[in-house]
Amino acid sequence: MGRGLRKGLTNYGDAGFSLFLRKAFIKAMGYSDDALDRPIVGITNTYSDYNPCHGNVPALIEAAKRGVMLAGAMPMAFPTISIHESFAHPTSMFLRNLMAMDTEEMIRAQPMDAVIVIGGCDKTLPAQIMAAASVDLPTVVIPVGPMVVGHHKGEVLGACTDCRRLWGAHRAGTIDEAEIETINGRLAPSVGTCMVMGTASTMACMIEAMGLSLPMSATIPAPHAERIRLAEASGRRAAELAVAGGPRPSEIMTPRAFRNAQVVMQAIGGSTNGLIHLTAMANRVAARVDLDAFDAVGREVPVLVDLKPSGDHYMEHFHHAGGVPKLLRELADLIDLDAPSVAGGTLRDVVAGAEEVPGQTVIRSPDHPIKPIGAMAVLRGNLAPRGAVIKHSAATPGLLSHTGRAVVFDSLADLAARVDDPDLDVAADDVLVLRNAGPKGAPGMPEAGYLPIPKKLARQGVKDMVRVSDARMSGTAFGTIVLHVTPESAVGGPLALVRTGDRIRLDVPARRIDLLVEEDELAARAAALPEAARPDWAARGYARLFHDTVTQADEGCDFDFMLREPPPAA
Ligand code: FES
Ligand code: MG
């Protein structure tokens, strides 16, 4: 039995009076003693007029509350920060750790025996799980679900892979002003998260595969009645956890669950951002995500899900083909099916309940994969001593082994000022380099890694070039793009040493990214770098905390003091 309203009472020597006060205040909302005497399930409310992805949150909260009450417990919704990709300046990543802190402390501060976190837009689920893992209170995750698809001139459209593709066509002059306006109204036709395999979908699929949410929770479209029923079922389940006192996140977020998540990330052609978030989540429970182990997973796991940007379909098609449970069945040889699920039982039970859909082609079998190896690879070399990442499933095969001349942009502002300059000295086989776009550099590691093809080359029909940066990239983007170069240039990483005209060699089969400049010369350039000083934007407040304590991409970009140390080796 949970402790309900008694939990976390401030005790100034008289616990009875503290409870008396707490009840006196909460009764102002009209609650009865019967309601207040039950185990409590807290429910995060991330509804915001600035977050259209979370537009269905009120309906999900209402359904979750119904589920909690049908199971005899007491639901209490409370607000936390909400973050939408397009409305978070300077970047949503800058705010992820703030949301994680806010969510963690509000779960800790208020009386609840279990918590339901409802999120979806890219950074929200990672933030909520980082929080829940740190508190280690029984937690059920309800993703808000993906948008349904849009249609334009007989073509199916999705945010935001097609946003990029069609905007690219507009830049190249093949789509005029009037048509691009029409398309603008059709790319996001409902509430919910981007319906391609972007970061939101990647996180929802990994979270389901880790057993943190109920089966099918990643894929049911946001506006569907089925999602409301899922929220009700999640509410019931959370009430059971509140009474039983578990399982807790630490019992679910085990090393095998993290490995399962990595298998799924490779098999779905997931977003590179998922790797940073998974690393941050693991660090909150003293598990660790090792980049080389992740790369090794990618060498044995095929891409099986045919979704944009690596494939052709959208999340609702994945759902109707059987969703994550069916994918786990196809991956059964590569997944640890004994991992527990918050639904009760293990992934073996989840797989047993998977639906077989005759004739579906969205979820392939390992015998007929989309790609025989995983979506992502980890690169190392003198340009990225602590690693870089490439989503090669969404790259141009002919560019995966490529040596070219570097064309360097020193910052986002420099990129914006020069990339479309008709006089820019650039050719299709050059390597575009962007620096000062990492966790501390930009700040907040913007999704700027998808450098635009210089307009004069785009007009000649160039669709892809090798691009290298310490930035991130939206999971909805595509191209031969090397990301998360670590350490970042702002802390003196080798990216800071590249000059226009140097040669860079990308060799994805060998997992290498190298700057072909003599070591002596690189040492001389390093010695000439200016001393790192705290920049003006980080003078005070949260920005200062962020600048001074954010870790690099290989450590999950969490604050360095949030890490949970692994238990000492026996
Ligand atoms: Fe919210 Fe894409 S903008 S998930
Ligand atoms: Mg995104």
From TrEMBL:
It comes from the Bacteria. Coiled coil: none annotated. It holds the Pfam family ILVD_EDD_N. SUPFAM superfamilies: IlvD/EDD N-terminal domain-like (SSF143975), LeuD/IlvD-like (SSF52016). This is Dihydroxy-acid dehydratase. Belongs to the IlvD/Edd family. Keywords: Iron, Iron-sulfur, Lyase, Metal-binding. Residues 362-557 form the Dihydroxy-acid/6-phosphogluconate dehydratase C-terminal domain. InterPro entries: Dihydro-acid_dehy_C, DiOHA_6PGluconate_deHydtase_CS, ILV_EDD_C, ILV_EDD_N, IlvD/EDD_N, Sugar_Degrad_Dehydratases. GO terms for molecular function: hydro-lyase activity; iron-sulfur cluster binding; metal ion binding. Residues 38-349 form the Dihydroxy-acid/6-phosphogluconate dehydratase N-terminal domain.
